Structures are given as structure tokens and as C-alpha cells.
Write the C-alpha cells for this entry.
Amino acid sequence: MRLKLCLLVLVLFFICPEVIGQKYKYVHFQGEAVPFQQVNQVIQDTNGYVWLATDDGLFRFDGSSFEDFNISLRSKTIRGFVSFDENTILFTNDTGIYSIKYQEGNPAIEPFSEAPGLHYPTELFQDSRGRVWAGQMNGSVFMYSSTEANGMRFEPVPEEKTAHIFFGEDIFNTVWALIPKNGIFYFDEAAQKFSAAGNQYDVSHFLVADDVLWLVGDHIKKLAVSEGGNVVGETNFSVNRKYRRIAKNRSGTIFLATESDLYTFRNTENGPSIKKIFGSNDPHRVDELPFKTISNLHFTFDTSNLTEAIWVSSGNGLGLLWSGFFQGLSGLANDNILALCPTDGGQILVSQGNITRVDVTGSSIGFKKDNALNGITGITSHKNITWYGTGNGQILQVPEQGPTKKIDLSRRGGGIFFMNADHQGDVWLCQAPLDKPIMGAARLNKDGTIVEYGTEKGFDSRVLVVREGGRNELYAAGIGTGTYLYKYDRTSDEFVNKSLVFPFEVSGNFEVHDMAVDNLGIVWLATTDGLLKYDTETIRRVNLGEYTLSEIRSVTSMSDGTLWLATDTDGLIHLDASSHYVLFDEKSGTPSKVASYRCLALDSDSRLWVGTAEGVVYSSQLLPGPQETKTPVLRSVVIGEEEVSTGEEIQITETEVVQLAVATITYPSTDIGYQYKVFQSDLHSDEIDDIIWTETETARFRLNGLTSGTYKVYVRGQKEGGYSWSKPLQMMVNVSELWYHRWWALLSFAILGFLFFWYFVRRWFLNRIGSLNASLLQKQNELNIKEAEIAAQIDTIKHQREEIKNTGTNIYLLNRLLRQFPKNATWKTMITALRQLVELPTGIDAFEIAYKRGENIIYSGYERGKKTIINRQEEFNEKENLASCVMVTGKSLMLNDFEKESISYISGRDSRGFISRLLHPLENSNGTPVVLCIYARQKDAFSQRDMTLIQILAAFLAVNAKDQLK
């Protein structure tokens, strides 16, 4: 892995040109499957999550699900992002600029700036000085810095509505702004203002790269700039379409976007090279990209697996494009590959009957067909000479300079299906038999002569492959359980049978299709019965899990000690030095799982070439190996039915079940398999590897049946398509022992059992005496019940008498009160007279007369214990106070528990302390509504009789009043 990271720069250098015109794998997140439609921009945080700015709100994406973060936002139209620092992302909506920060592992959203100069901010940009620039919809620019806490506002153009203002910074630290239809501006640091740079009004978007400004719209312009915002050169490129966006990825490739299409752009000596990008999730199919109204391109790079992704924000959802592990040659037919051969001159020769020469020496991979060579079934090359074997037994010796020489082997047999040149330039070949068997192999010398190596040279069987490796050791392999491997002795010029007896069972038609000799001299055999490892003393079958017995058609050894295998129908397998294997298939970019025989090759840059039944592909990486799946993260912990905090240690009891949910932050992450293992925390590290991983079909799994103790839980994930297993996510689970399993609980159970036995024995002896006592007790209980019933009846009669007495008292007090009212009295006089309601023993603690004045409701009355009149007012609102509600409805209310009963009428509360309340409506002399409010501090203070008396009092007040309440 360290070697791959060291080669990162070289990888990007080689990948960059190959992107041009390349097909991408893609996925389109749209429609009912996602909670948004218009995506304005995306950004990736330091934890790997991708945030989406959409017209439907703010969302976080982990590769499989979109998490909604709109609860605290007043505006759901998210317009732009910028990475402010390592832990902070800024975004804009219609109400301002906000920050996203991680606090204890969870994102928190807070206002970033509430400066008065903000007006519907859109795009954000941070320059090299740490200043944040925000375009605004009124055409102005807002700038925030650490020295300008309230920000500064600039107006490059007169106030004019604009949907976007784009920013960039050149190599001279000059900040540039593009206002579409208004021009390009640079920020003059000395004058502290934006100044126009030429007349560039027909520009849709721009890209600032070093000392160059790329402008796109109806045409493409290249502006060379110098220090201070000076334009020192201009180059125009005519195009036949309008471009909406331009962007550059980390490896330097420039991308263009129209309304719905993507292109790559190169400025070559022969003019601009613009090539359209297509989708290709299937190597046999080319798709038009499905995006509409493209608004932004964003590039993310994953250093753990050296892959780059393109995020497309559009009006119909979110797009994701990425390059497969293997790339095809665009324009080359998906036909069966018969032979592959790298040359010392930096070419890969590919045979599909005719020859295709692939040039890998320059900055791009190109090819051309050689129609003069046909029917080629074998190829080999050494220095400046290439040999081609044909299907009719001919060998063509083709030097870089000089005439082609033909060697005819048709009398010996049929097609030349394998050729390999050793370090001395001698060519070893295998030929198919016709009407008689061909034993062994043959060698083509430099002078063109053929030397037969048959039974007289040590062979006892047919040979299918001859390879050289290690310390220039030459091996031949072929057919038969006792004649499958030979080693060439250069001294005696013959082959020695090195075949060992198999310690395992093989099929009767055993063959070695291919082999590789690594730097340590180990011979790896690709056979009909799996991959075999031969180290001169032992022969063993390599464990490849479910693919252990699969037929292997080709094998090659890498300089780092790893192997690549091509199976017959399962795809490619990578095997590392620790015997870990990873499968590669169509999801990795190969056109077919069916491999061609002996068609794995490494070019001069250690790039892997693979021949299949449906075409040839090459690895995107140099010295390729599996991409490591990211370590899963813990998303939730559920114990029983309750979700708990995802802390460092999970606490459960022996009977509790814990459900864990994990996720892998990779894009996309819908094709990830998970495994987990559980073991005691004190287990020695050497024994952990012996614990078997448990498969789980989903990202959720349960842990149950754990006895008391402390456990470690490992969870790992593997993404399909050429990814190795991730490093495990590690968790601690502490299982508490159930209390009834402890010694003191068992002792308590024993004591309780003894007491229980003693109790029932004693109970048996006392049973007869108890029956007599029970009969006596029953009679006594019946007598007690009768006495209780009589007492209850007496209490009821007493209560009724008390109520009658209280009612009579209240009627007397009411009559006494009414007599004191003069005829045609004023409201002021009557309110003063009503003071006796709280002075006499009526059970009333306060009263008020409520009436409406303007938009308020006015209260006047007296409270027990206070000598002066109480005047107060509230806003007239039938949903907030009871008096307003009674005025509107015209119905009386009686509440004996204000806190519980008032919610049926109003939402407002007060803290006046009156639990029981009576409110009755009446009309003033002019028809104005008035409410008589009676209060008591005691709960359940009023009855229906009290309501009747209050209604009588209210009717008297309404008739007797001669003036109006004001």
C-alpha cells in the first residue's frame, strides 16, 4: 500500500490523458428514490461524507442514504458551499451564511455571519488570505475576514439581480469575480474595490488556473494574466455549442459542461481537442449521460484506493461518475483475444486474428491496426525482433528494420498457440497437433533453425507453456498428473521432469494451462484444478475459498510478490503475499468473466493487460492491486427497542440483544458485503485470526447469547468490483452478569426455598383451626360492610343538608347584595358594590368585569385581601384567554381545574393562582359584550347551583346598568 501511495503522482500523470474520450461508470440519484430534485452544488467533508446543496434543503450522503439536515433552517434553498477549515464547511441559503462543524462526531449547524450587508448570498469562495467571498442576488459581493467581523460589501456593477457570481484566485493571489452578462472583475487590494477586466459580457462561467483564465459560453477564451489583474494575452477557440460550466480535476484535466452533456478539453498544438464523455456501466454498451441543466462539477479523490470521482449537480438530481479498475480501448472490437505480448519498444501487441499495436510510451494510450498480419495465434518479442505464430503453422520473424522472414512448421503440426522468447533471444513455442501427437516443445534459434525437444530431450507428454523467471530458470508445463512440470538444464540441453506426486486429488484430464516463475524461483501453475504452488520440494493447492477448484487459464507474477490469475468463467483473481485474494469481474470493468488462455501481460510501466473472450482491457493503476475498502463506521446501537449513544463501550446484560448498524462511506456503497467476529477482549492477538468471520446479509446484525464478560467486536466490509476487505471497525461490548446468577442470589434462593417449605408444612397443621377462624372472620366482615354502608348513607344525607344550607346562605347573600344596588346605577357603582362578593364568606376569592376596548380586553374588579380596585388589560385573542373566548362564543364556562380544563378552549396560560373559575357573558346597554369573571383558589370550588346564582347576578347587572363600559 505504501508503494502505491508513493506512485500516486505517477498514477495521476498517466491517468490524466487517458480520461480524454474515456467511458465512465455512472449512477444517477433522482426521482422518488431521493428527497430532492434540483442540486446546486456538492462538497466532501474531512470525514468522507458528501453534502448536497439543493432547492429542497441540506442533505448528507454516505454513499447509500441521504440524511436530512433541514430541521433548524429557516430557508431550504441551499445555494453554495465552501470548505472554511479542516473541521468547518460554510453554506448559503436565502437567510445568510451558516457553518457545519463536527462536535463529538455529530454535525452541528450554526449561523456563521449575520452581518447586515448579506442579501440572498449564492456562491461562496475562500481565497489564500482566508477571506470568504459571497456573491449576492442583487449583484453585490460580500466579503468576510477575521479583521472584518461584520464583513464588507462591494458593488462591482450597479444593483442588478443576478443568479450567480463566480470567484477564483490566480497565482498572483488576485481574486477574480465573474458576473454573467456584466463581465469579469478583479479585486484591487490597494483601492479595496472591484475593477473591470476587459469587455467579457457573453461568459457563462470561468476557471482560474495559475496565470490563466478560461472563459466559456458561446465560445472558449483563454486569458493570460499578470500581477495586479492585468490581461496580457487572449486566445479564442471557436466551438459549435454553448458551455455552461468549466472545471479542472486534481490531475489537471479540464472538463466542460453544456446543458446536459460533459466533455474533456485539451489545448493541443493542432487546436482544441474536445471529446464527449459517455456512460458505460456495461463494457458492451455506451450510454448518453442522463443529466439535465448541469449546474456544478465537483471532484473527490480517495487516497486509500487512488480513485477519483466526478459529482454532477443538475436540475434532475445528482450524478456520480468514476473510472473502473480496468479500462478498454475505445474503438477496438469486443472479440476473443488470442494472444498478448509486450515489446521492449513500449508497445502491447494484441491479436484478435489480426494485430493491434497499442502504444503505451507517450502521455496517452493509442492504438492502430496492422491489417497486413492475419490469423495470428501466438506472439513473442525480444529487443528489436517480434515473432508471430499463425493458425496454419507459420512463424513470421519481423525485425524493426529489415525484411520479414517466414518459417514454415505446417509439416510438424497445426497452429502456433504459444510463443515465448527467453533472455538469450531464443523462442520457445508450442504447436497444436494435427493427425499425430506432438511431444514436448520446440525452439527457434536466432539463425532461424528449429530444434525439437521431444522424448529424446526428456519430455514424456505434450507441453502447453514454456516460461522463464527467477534466476533465468526455464520451465515447461503441460498435460498429465506425473508429467506436468519440467525444468530445462542448459548444460545438458534437455528437460528434467520435476513433477511431484500430488498430495490431493485432481481430475483425470489434468492440464497446466499457464505458469509464472516469481523472483524467488517459486513456480505458480495455472491448471484445470486450481492454482498450484511448486517450490522444488513440495506441491500444494492454493486456498482461494470458493474458487479453489476453479480452472485457471492464465497467471502472471508482479514485482511486489503478488499474483494475478485469470479463471475460466469467474473473472480475475488477485493474490497477495499473505494469501489474501480478491475477485475482479465485470463490475471492475472487464468485458467478460471468461478469460483467454495465457493472456495476462505487464507492459513497461507495470500496467496489467488482460485478454478475455470479449476484448482486452488494461489496469488504470500501475503495479495494480485491489483497492482497499474503507473501514465501516458505526451508525447506530439499539439495545432491545431503545437506541443508545454510540460510545466507546456498549453496556448490556446477558439477556439483552444489541443490534448494530454500520455503514461504509464510499461512493456508491450499495454493493458492500459485511462480516463480523466476536471474541473475548483478553484473547491473544495470534488467536484472533483463527476466529471465523460471520457473514451478514445487510449492514445490520444482532449480538445475543453473550455470557458475562468484556468482548471485542470486529466488523469489516468489502466492496464489489476489485476491492479488498477493509480494516476492521473495532468495538467493545461489556456484558453484565444477571443478578440471580451470583452466589449471594443462589444462597438467597436456598434460604427462601427452606422458608417456603417450612411455611407450607406449618400451614398444613394450622389449616383446620384456620377454617373456623375464617368462618368467624367472614361473619365479622359482613357486619363491617353493613356498618360501612349505613355510615356512607349518613354522610350523604349530611352532605346534602350542608349543600342546601350553603345554597340558602348564598341566596341570602345574593339577595342582600342586590338590595344594595341603586336603580340605574353606573358600572363603577356596581363594581364597588360587588366588592362584597370577596368580603363576605361566599367562597369567592376574586371577581372581574371584562369588556373589549379596541384590540384589548379590559378587566376591573377586586381580590380578597386587597382594598383597592384591580385594573388590567390583555390582548383580545379568543385563543389565548378565557374572557375573549366567552365573548366570541357567547357561552358560559365553569372550570374547576384550570390547568387541565382550559386546554380545551385556549392555548394561553396565566399564573394568577385561581384554580376554579366561572365566566358568564352579558350585554351592556348598547349591546356591547361583557363577561362576569368569578375566581376561587380552591379546586372544585363551584357547582352548578353557583353557576345559576351567578347567571341571576349577571342578568341583574345587565338590566340595572345605565351607562356603558369605557
About this structure: DSSP finds ten helices and 74 strands in the chain. The CA atoms of residues 807 and 945 lie 7 Å apart.
